[in-house]
Specification:
FAD/NAD(P)-binding domain, 9-stranded mixed beta sheet, about 35% helix, about 375 residues
Length: about 375
């Protein structure tokens, strides 16, 4: 079986789904391939900065119909008991990936975009044409391929991406809970070897998602033991966990998380979302970056296909330049903060400084968030 398209998108997370909506709106023939059936849960902080709302409205995405929580405050605590609050300049909203991804998927189907639930096994580029194969022996050809397949994939091995060869010291764990937690707060709680994000999503559920150092984690028998003897050393986090009831059969995890440098273009595939670069969860803005990245890749491809960008080489150079200009500062800030928050003494020092100089935390937030995205700028 064989299918052709102008643009093929590998991966149906936020970045892939959004790029498909944008490119289809521009009148292009788009096919999206996603390996997992919808809806499904993903390891994610599930907080989104309001910077994306104008763009989503332009795409015809009605976020309010999903009943998100509205968040306008950040609460930061340390294991030693230091604590500070600040207002979020733009604010944000909480929505689960289970709900949001499925909503965007249904939107694509309603608009006539072809979506294949398949696993990609091979991507080849020859004579200005991509050939993509899946496990069910379906072959696709396309003029352009977007890689939106997430943090870590067998395709990264196939494409010989440098980061995939390096060991990554982190894993992330996430679950939804019933319990008592303010609707308007996203919290970041530090513990030895990691940090935990807590916020509300739709249907009054609490999302608890944390990043852990694998060396610390492997000393414990299981997630329950790790939470009891490590996370609960933070008394605020202990209180939240003890008063909450797990809604999942078991928390979901992802390991070998790499926050090192990735390439925006590999073997002529334009990477987007976590496939292009993963921001530390403590920045709380990975979902907004996925939307922003989808906008960038879509607008750049539209300019190329309209003849405004004269060659594939110039397309790839321009996309890389825009991606780096937009996100490199955010990624570097996230990396620095991660290094600080893994050191208890430095974390306490940072919180002390922030408590005395609240404007500093606002500057950190500003450096990890963007300006409102307009759909037609």
């Amino acid at each position: 079986m064989h299918f052709k398209s102008d643009i093929l998108i590998i991966g149906g997370g936020l970045a892939g789904l959004t790029a498909a909506l944008h490119l289809h709106k521009a009148g292009l023939d788009v096919i999206l391939i996603e390996k997992n059936a919808y809806p499904n849960h993903k390891v994610c902080g599930e907080y989104i900065s309001n910077e994306v709302l104008p763009y989503l409205k332009w795409l015809g995405v009605d976020v309010e119909s999903l009943n998100p929580t509205h968040i306008n405050k950040l609460h930061l605590t340390t294991q030693s008991g230091k604590s500070t609050y600040t207002n979020l300049p733009l604010g944000g909203f909480g929505i689960s990936r289970f709900t949001l991804d499925n909503y965007l998927y249904q939107l694509l189907l309603n608009r006539g975009v072809k979506v294949f639930l398949e696993s990609v096994t091979d991507v080849q580029f020859d004579e200005e044409l991509f050939t993509v194969k899946t496990t069910n022996n379906i072959t696709f050809t396309a003029n352009q391929v977007i890689g939106a397949y997430g943090k870590r994939s067998s395709l990264d091995i196939k494409l010989d991406r440098p980061f995939i060869k390096k060991k990554a010291p982190f894993l992330a764990i996430k679950a939804h809970y019933n319990g008592v937690f303010p609707d308007d707060i996203v919290a970041l709680h530090n513990f030895k070897g990691g940090y935990c994000g807590v916020s509300k999503v739709e249907d009054d559920k609490i999302n608890i998602c944390y990043l852990a150092d694998y060396e610390t984690f492997k000393k414990h028998k299981n997630i329950e033991s790790y939470q009891q003897y490590v996370l609960m050393k933070n008394k605020v986090l202990k209180d939240i966990l003890e008063r909450s009831e797990l809604l999942f059969e078991t928390p979901i995890t992802i390991s070998q998380l790499s926050f090192g440098a990735k390439e925006a273009v590999t073997n002529h595939v334009l990477m987007v979302g976590d496939a292009a670069g993963l921001i530390h969860p403590l920045c709380g803005n990975g979902m907004a970056m996925a939307f922003h990245g989808a906008k960038i890749v879509s607008e750049t491809l539209i300019a190329y296909l309209n003849g405004d960008i004269k060659s594939r080489a110039k397309l790839e150079k321009k996309y890389t330049k825009i991606w780096n200009k937009t996100f490199n500062s955010r990624l570097k800030t996230g990396s620095i903060l991660s290094s600080l928050l893994q050191r208890e003494i430095l974390t306490d020092f940072l919180i002390n400084v922030i408590t005395k100089m609240p404007w500093l935390l606002k500057q950190i937030i500003k450096r990890t968030h963007g300006k409102p995205l307009l759909g037609n700028d």
